[in-house]
Amino acid sequence: MKISLTNAGKRFNREWIFRKVDYQFIEGESYAITGPNGSGKSTLLQAIGGAIALSEGEAQYTIEIPATHGNQTTPSQYTRQIEADHAFRKIAIAAPYLELIEEMTVTEFLQFHHQFKPFLPQVSIKQIIDTVGLSKAANKQIRFYSSGMKQRVKLAQAIFSDVSCLLLDEPCTNLDAEGIALYQQLIAAYGGGRLIIVSSNDPQEYSFCEHRISIWDYKL
Fold it and tell me: What pLDDT is recorded for position 66?
């Protein structure tokens, strides 16, 4: 998957959050959007994912589809552009401001999520819950979880989704040292080959990223 921003800008009322962003985000690469709190990192991340509309410019989403000849799949591929309204099928996001269905247990929540966005092959919901350290609370309603446990659920539903692109907004919010180590392990184990974009001002969250983008470069 490739996401291309061309002359992209977003404003609220008269204030421009960012302008003139020309950038390509390519599958298999990882990117960090950096800047202090309140600088617009989350707004840019949401615009990249198509969750909010741009005020100017455009975002394009391109996927590669293997070309087939008869019953054989060849290494050759062709690309197809998809509409922003359908790009969400290829994207998963974890962010502290996204709500969970707190009346559900984590098992029920992940089963519900799976109906809309399948999980990675050969990974069961029980394995996901065990991996993120929530097996003892698997049948407890999420509303009784601590803030750190809720963040583990958010990371689980995103990282284990079978998607090409992961958007991670301050992914270690509310996590203790053990939770931060778990996040880093999940990225190392399941992030390979995907497009990963992290919005953060904490190096613990984006130290693995190969590319760095400062939001201040797009403040005009």
Answer: 59
160, 92 Cβ separation under 8 angstroms: no
- Tell me the helix, strand and coil percentages in the chain, rounded to 5: 35, 35, 35
- Do residues 62 and 79 lie in contact, with contact meaning Cβ atoms separated by under 8 Å? yes
Q: For the chain, which domains are there?
A: 2-218 (3.40.50.300)
Q: Helix 147-159 vs helix 106-114: angle between axes, to the nearest 10 degrees? A: 20
Which amino acid does the sequence have at 27?
E
Rg (CA), the chain: 18
Average pLDDT over the chain reads 93
The sheet that has 30-34: what strands, in order across it? 91-94, 165-169, 195-199, 30-34, 211-214
- Spatial distance between the Cα atoms of 116 and 155, rounded to a whole number of angstroms: 17
CB atoms within 10 A of CB 182: 18
In the chain, pLDDT over 90 holds for what percent of residues? 86
How far is the C-alpha of 70 from the C-alpha of 120, rounded, in Å?
27
| pLDDT tens figures, 158-191 | 999 999 999 999 999 999 999 999 999 999 999 9
C-alpha of 195 from chain center: 9
For residues 126 and 108, the answer to whether their CB atoms sit within 8 Å is no
Report the distance separating Cα 117 and Cα 114, nearest Å.
Answer: 5
**Contact predicate 213/39, CB 8 Å:** no
